[in-house]
Write a structure and sequence with these properties.
- It contains three helices and 14 strands.
- The strands form two sheets. A twelve-stranded mixed beta sheet has the order 8-9-10-11-12-1-2-3-5-6-7-13. Strands 4-14 form a two-stranded parallel ribbon.
- Strand 8 and strand 9 form a beta hairpin.
- The C terminus is likely disordered.
- This is GLPGLI family protein.
């Protein structure tokens, strides 16, 4: 850790220690924006159609989430809203289904439980939280009334795609995740599975998905209880990923065999 990073950490630690965390509660609202780069090799779908599809996808990926948190626990889920039927665009209809996941985290016990549904089956993913090695950066900005500090994390991930030859291939990609956290809210928490910084994460960006906090209520008049999800088939994250990979390959094979029917594009995203 550099001298500048150490100085930031000590300042943050001092602020946290001066705030009483007893019976501390909060509700944070986040809005999502996802980068859409949809490449469709089918010659029957021209560039104008692809542009229309991408615009529809961007709109449907704009969602709102709520994080309820205490000092050590939190529950994060997507806010339900009534969706108007997606109109057909030049013979192509976009249908994005997003899971109503419930992510429970306990940062003190270093574990999480994710209640999620895939293809009509409910799963209960239980595992340890990822220990990301955040790099504290000497840079600040304001989000609303809060002063936020920057932190970054580098990693490599794998994704599946269909090659120009129509074959399923695994692609490795480098990723830089940028977080903005505020020590004014002394909890080591944030949206989805993000945590591990000396203050609540108000903004996160992994190059494809951006989550920005738009509203915070601290110690609301009506207190709440954090409840850990209980329903679903219990699996580890590795077991769930293997199931998801298998289903994704099946869907890609189905897509390959039906390319060019030009009627509907269906995409499923986790909450």
């Amino acid at each position: 850790m550099t001298i500048k990073s150490t100085r930031i950490f000590l300042i943050v630690l001092f602020i946290i220690n001066t705030i009483s965390a007893q019976d501390f509660q909060g509700i944070a609202t986040y809005k999502s924006h996802r980068k859409v780069d949809l490449k469709m090799g089918d010659d029957t779908i021209n560039s104008e159609r692809q542009k229309q599809i991408q615009e529809q996808l961007k709109k449907q990926f704009q969602q709102e989430y709520t994080l309820k948190f205490t000092q050590y626990e939190s529950v994060y889920k997507r806010n339900e809203k009534l969706e108007a039927p997606s109109p057909s665009s030049s013979g192509i209809r976009i249908n994005v289904t997003q899971g109503a996941d419930i992510m429970y985290k306990n940062v003190k016990e270093n574990r999480y439980t994710n209640n999620t549904e895939i293809f009509g089956k409910l799963f209960l993913i239980k595992d340890s939280l990822s220990n990301r090695k955040w790099k504290l950066v000497n840079e600040t900005k304001n989000i609303g009334e809060y002063t936020c500090y920057k932190a970054t994390f580098n990693d490599t991930y794998e994704t599946q795609s269909i090659s120009d030859k129509g074959e399923i291939e695994i692609v490795k990609k480098e990723r830089v995740t940028t977080a903005w956290y505020t020590p004014q809210i002394p909890v080591s928490n944030g949206p989805t599975d993000y945590y591990g910084l000396p203050g609540l994460i108000l903004e996160i960006n992994d190059d494809e998905l951006t989550l920005v906090c738009t509203k915070i209520v601290l110690n609301p008049k009506e207190s709440f209880k954090i409840s850990e999800p209980k329903k679903g088939k219990e699996v580890t994250q590795k077991m769930y990923d293997e199931i998801l990979d298998k289903k994704s390959k099946e869907m890609m094979e189905s897509f390959k065999s039906r390319r060019g029917d030009g009627e509907r594009v269906m995409i499923r995203m986790g909450g």
